[in-house]
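Troubleshooting entry. The earlier prediction with 2-(butylsulfanyl)adenosine gave an output that would not parse, so I re-checked the input for stray whitespace and re-submitted. Clean input:
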Amino acid sequence: MSTAAARAAAARVAGLREQLARHDHRYYVLDDPEVPDSEYDRLMRELRELEAAHPELLSADSPTQRVSGAPNAEFDEVRHGVPMLSLDNAFADTDVVEFDRRVRERLGTEAEVEYCAEPKLDGLAVSVRYERGVYVRAATRGDGTVGEDVSANVRTIRAIPLRLTGAAPEAIEIRGEVYMPFAAFRRLNTEAAAAGEKLFVNPRNAAAGALRQLDPAVTAKRSLAVYFYASGEWRGGAEPDTQQELLAQFNAWGLRTNPETRVVAGVAGCLEYYHSLAARRETLKYQIDGVVYKVNRRADQEALGQVSRAPRWAVAHKFPADEALTTLRDVEFQVGRTGVLTPVARLEPVMVGGATVTNATLHNMDEIERKDLRIGDTVVIRRAGDVIPELVRSLPERRPPGARSIELPAACPVCGSAVVREEGEAAARCSGGFVCAAQRKEALRHFASRRALDIEGMGEKLIDQLVERAMIATPADLYDLKLEPLAALDRMGEKSAANVLAALERSKRTTLPRFLHALGIRDVGEATAAALAAHFGTFAALRAASPGQILEVQDVGPVIAAHLHAFFAAPANWEIIERLLAAGLNWPEGPPAVRAVGALDGVTVVLTGTLASMTREQAGAALQALGAKLGASVSKRTDYVVAGAEAGSKLKRAVELGIPVLDESGLEQLLRGERPAA
Ligand code: IVH
């Protein structure tokens, strides 16, 4: 080998060791991993391969030569009677075939080997020591030889007996996994969110945090659970012959073992177990990241022995990672049907949870800021089941020098209209309205809806077809529709087409509030439309109004005034309005209200029945805005009863007491600040 190649390998080995040491520190000491397990596994695998190819580079301080993690200074140290081992990983089925081949080769057998197959829990390994059947100590794995004394905390786990049932050895270390079930994890995070605290990244982290509490009372509240799967030091009494019998003995002592455990035959049995558990993974109440195969006969285990930190008789077959690292290539903005701009992350394609991921939604600009994202960043992608991939966070420590910050575009990527983002609002929107192809269908649906122009038969499906066939783009085009092309559409025919045309014709006679509402101006709902119509009286007066004059309308603040101003300032909107008026849209117009604010001071109104032009709540709000009081029941002090369709006892009572009863045109008068005679 050339010296240049050897130097490159040595440099890479040193680099990998440094990275792994840093990740070990973050993961084991700080409980705050910087990279997903899959990335750590990848680095470890690369280091192992390099060390195998260059044995001269092997050294005792390599992370491959020891189990990692240093004891937390706040806990006492515990020396394990027998070291706590780790496991080698298998990723592909062929890795398992290889493992089984090596096992049979070393055991010198052609026959199928019996394996004990168990779920690989994603928690924390602990060793619990019992002396003459009494719980004396619990320790974390630490570096495999020396761990941390977490006796007080582990004692709080209810699943762990303080005294073993039946005859017990003089001393025994029992190893298992402490974990947090999903339900407890979700509860904990809900509480943390309510308290404004930092959320836990995953159940493993939450369990680690709980176990490392200095106050056992806090640990006790965290609903930790445990499954036992191995023994360490064993003094006195006969040891079981197989892993299966070991687990049965644990159960007999009152220790929890995983009920999904199975004894399987040969590599075929292992793989069948793996795939069937993988398919049911989502139904388990706790997180697993793979399965573990263990040679069942313990005499065989002993014969096989171990290599540095891991036994030769067991292997962890990992599930495909559901988190992975990749590069954020770009952020593009999609325009939704209501005009909201949603940033979408374009990613360097990466395999996550068995599928290739190239995009992830980012929700809004606040999230981009919160996650401190730049284009070029290394990011963590997570995918759980079928859900949309999520960009979990960036790794700013890996940010390349040229990383670009992400800006909200000034112009809509679909129509080029201005993009607006109101103060205090997370969403940014295209101001294009009808002009924007992305918003067209939604704007048309709103225009035709029951509480707007109420065009019967002009439903979502019909609008979709009309837009997709470019037969309409704006509401003005609706009134140019002709019978034949309409009748030729899917699910239409002559009769339906004629009905739709008749409904369009009927919709031309409307009210000013309905028309204003139908235009879909941002934040101009029914109540605001009613207030505007009442204040200005005529459409001409409204369109001529300055922003300052619009601000005089009760309940119209600067935001709505700005929306109205922007809408009427756009020539494209004017063209649509002119065409609608030319098509014959019309409404009764009244004189403008002389004074709106306080116009109904001291007037008590009772609303009853169903109103056609707005809901009772909207009418109530608009009346209150003018100073009126709303009455819950009709009495002598009631000034007006506004009765909609199907009004009942209140209407009857009003008639009995001789209180003026108004219909909807009377309500419109009230909303103009007038005091109609009954
Ligand atoms: S056996 C001698 N069985 O995985 C072998 N480990 O990556 C000792 N783990 O440190 C481990 N479920 O924390 C074993 N059913 C299982 C396991 C399991 C989870 C963890 C354990 C171990 C790590 C190795």
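This one parsed fine. Residues 66-72 have pLDDT under 50 and may be disordered.
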